[in-house]
Specification:
Blueprint: E1 12-14, E2 29-33, H1 36-42, E3 49-54, H2 70-84, E4 88-98, E5 100-103, E6 106-109, H3 110-120, E7 124-132, E8 147-154, E9 198-200, H4 220-230, E10 236-239, H5 246-253, E11 257-262, H6 265-279, H7 299-303
Parallel strand pairs: 1-2, 2-11, 3-4, 3-10, 7-9, 10-11
Antiparallel strand pairs: 4-8, 5-6, 7-8
The chain binds S-adenosylmethionine (SAM).
Length: about 325
Amino acid sequence: MTKNPPPIPKALIVKPSKATKEPAELGDHAIWQGDAEDMLCALPNKPLFDLVVSSPPYNIGKSYEKKAPLDDYLKWQERILDLIIPRIKDTGSLCWQVGNFVDNGQIVPLDIEMAPIFKKHGLKLRNRIIWHFGHGLHNKHRFSGRYEVVMWYSKTDSYQFDVDAVRIPSKYPGKRHFKGPNKGKLSGNPLGKNPEDVWTIPNVKSNHVEKTDHPCQFPVGLIERLVLSLTKPGQLVFDPFAGVGSAGVAAALHDRRFWGCELLPHYAKQGRQRIDEALRGVARYRPHDKELYDHTKSKLSQIVDTGLEDAGG
Ligand SMILES: C[S@@+](CC[C@H](N)C(=O)[O-])C[C@H]1O[C@@H](n2cnc3c(N)ncnc32)[C@H](O)[C@@H]1O
């Protein structure tokens, strides 16, 4: 007699009315549909998270946000971070992904504005990762913006970091030392090279394989690299502004647990569906180490310059 496979855990959507102070009730994969401050206040005030990774609303007037004065925005972010940071474990990390606030044509980099909040909590900045991407608005009055940053902070000096889990192919894999005691031996790491702190990963636009109707979802590969290097299987990843659950997808793909929070029911529902697909092994996504599409080799670019950049997917 064949044994039935164990049931695949379903991602949950937890409504605010079912608020719980018992994290066990949230299960291994949950999106709380409601306000991030409410969710955080409903959780026990003790270390729970191994990795917090998020892209907060940037206060630039996207469909899901009301543009507020910068000071008000920063005060709100500080309230959220004051609730999050005590709930990160000592071995854990926080990755806050931000771009620029734009004020009358002047850019205000949010990582610089927010640095004092992290400093107040004694967090340690390990990398300011430049996420470089190909698509975006073409600007007439300044150079077009093609990067955002991920501020990776650890809670303490005893933080988890496994670079071997995210090595990428070396430029010259067969290169050997040509003199000295190691003459003839491979000069690089056979597992590949450290991916460094400038990551070119296509953003999720038009024909990207992960595209949903969310205007600025994370590419799963961006979070996958953080999840693999900063957590171990079974550990808990948290995104207080989960959108369509891309961080949850990255976590589910690699046997990590995930809790997220998303204000808008429509996105929370899609997030749950995407996490379910990842748990069932049918998620469509672009891995972090997939080679970039070289549009200069496409027939189209030889005929006419289309203005297309990295196609993604
Ligand atoms: C920049 S997007 C994050 C997208 C996400 N990284 C993804 O991959 O889909 C910010 C998200 O925060 C949500 N949001 C805005 N205010 C919120 C609040 N007070 N609490 C929880 N979520 C909120 C928005 O609806 C939006 O989906």
